[in-house]
Amino acid sequence: MIYFDNAASTRMDDRVLEAMLPYLKESFGNANGKYSLGYEARKAVNEARKTIASAISAEPDEIYFTSGGTEGNNTVLSFAKVIISSKTEHDSVLKVIENAKKNGTKAVLLKPDSFGMVTPKILKEKLEELDIKGDPSDFKKRALVSIMLVNNETGNIQNIKELAEVAHSYGCVFHTDAVQAAGHMRINVKELGVDALTVSGHKLYGPKGTGFMFIRRGVSLNPLIYGGGQERGMRSGTENVPGIVGLGKACELAAVENEINSRKEREIAEYFKKTLLETIPDTKINGDGKWVLNFSFAGINGTSLALRLDMEGICVSTGSACSSGLDERSHVLTALGLSNEQADSSIRISIGKYNTMEEAKFTCFHIKRLVEELRSLGR
Ligand SMILES: Cc1ncc(COP(=O)(O)O)c(C=O)c1O
User: Fold this and answer.
1) DSSP codes, 88-144
2) Buried b (16+ CB within 10 A) or exposed e, 248-259
3) Cα 372 to ligand 1 centre (Å)
4) How far is the C-alpha of 19 from the C-alpha of 12, rounded, in Å?
């Protein structure tokens, strides 16, 4: 099998599994237990928190464990009274906004430019128009700007540092969904200048159902989940100790191996772009991804192509596989100005650290062959 759907999920790194195993077997204690089994679990959770904080240049008390990207985004966005975000965000942001609007939240979705970029100028103009002036002393009264770092469909990398600066100059809190960035590029919250950031474990070779939020010291948000008061009251529920240990290991590996993995991914991506654009007529790349690539092949249906590639043992996706399997037209491609036909003719190829150039060559060969076949069949 050739797996080019790393934006949907990644294969867990064996070293992550190894780190987790003791906490699934002998060290199974509740991290709140007042005996050595509990202390062992607590120690492991603390270590993972420290590792993750150091990997992204944060402090350990700025890290809150969650069940993944969806929960992180929901928590950060749920209680804002004013939200400025973009039309190309993941549904775990857009649906929260949709719901919050019903409860009186004022929300604006920015339209990116035709390349899918939310430029600092676009944000500045909107903030100016909205006449937002937050009270810097009270985070809960400030508007929240939420723009993702890397888009899950086009792979576009937004200029978060400058966007955060613009947001701050208008007294807003800035959050970024970094789910598709972690594991593929270095994340440094100090350099990015963000107040909050969300990450998901299964996108960076860690376990599913794990993730964390970075919330900068001094920024106070409301919890989404109440109960036993774990995670300093921000996220109740018995700690998923093996998951947290696995997430910690995945973040440690990502930080250490980032450069080498990222170089390889980008080389493979360049090969895909060059080969598909040059050898298949009427092919278009949507956005400017460096490891998540989105192509439209005029005159064919993307789902038909993905299904045929699957028969060759190649996994790619159409649109966002992170939704519950509903085959809806991509809101991201539509926001970029693609027609329905163009959006429907697209596939997403997302590259990860286990992919090889040989796999890319094999995949390009079959894409070309199948696009020609589908075109000759008129679908
Ligand atoms: C950009 C982005 N944000 C959030 C999520 C949700 O993450 P999770 O699957 O961990 O809930 C995804 C995943 O599919 C994503 O691609």
Assistant:
1) TS-HHHHHHHHHHHHTT-EEEEEPP-TTS---HHHHHHHHHHHT----TT-GGGS-E
2) bbbbbbbbeebe
3) 33
4) 12
CATH superfamily of 2-8+259-377: Aspartate Aminotransferase, domain 1 (3.90.1150.10)
Among protein residues, the one whose CA lies closest to atom 8 of ligand 1: 69
Contact indicator for 206, 252 with CB cutoff of 8 Å: no
Catalytic site residue 322? Answer: yes
73 CA to centre of ligand 1 in angstroms: 9
Helices of type H across 177-301 = 189-192, 241-279
CATH (one of 3.90.79.10, 3.40.640.10, 3.40.50.2020, 3.30.70.100) for 14-254: 3.40.640.10
User: Atom 16 (ligand 1): residue with closest C-alpha?
Assistant: 152
If DSSP codes are grouped into helix, strand and coil, which group holds residue 151?
A: coil
Nearest CA to ligand 1 atom 7: 69
DSSP state of 191: H
Full pLDDT tens readout for the chain, 379 residues: 999 999 999 999 999 999 999 999 999 999 999 999 999 999 999 999 999 999 999 999 999 999 999 999 999 999 899 999 999 999 999 999 999 999 999 999 999 998 999 999 999 999 999 887 766 666 667 899 999 999 999 999 999 999 999 999 999 999 999 999 999 999 999 999 999 999 999 999 999 999 999 999 999 899 999 999 999 999 999 999 999 999 999 999 999 999 999 999 999 999 999 999 999 999 999 999 999 999 999 999 999 999 999 999 999 999 644 444 556 789 999 999 999 999 999 999 999 999 999 999 999 999 999 999 999 997 6
- Nearest to residue 96, comparing CAs of 198, 226, 193? 198
Query: What is the 212 CA–ligand 1 centroid distance (Å)?
Result: 12
Q: By the 8 A CB rule, do 146 and 175 touch? A: yes
Domain ranges of the chain: 2-8+259-377, 14-254
Measured from CB, residues less than 6 Å from any atom of ligand 1 are 68-70, 73, 90, 92, 148, 152, 177, 179-180, 200, 211, 322
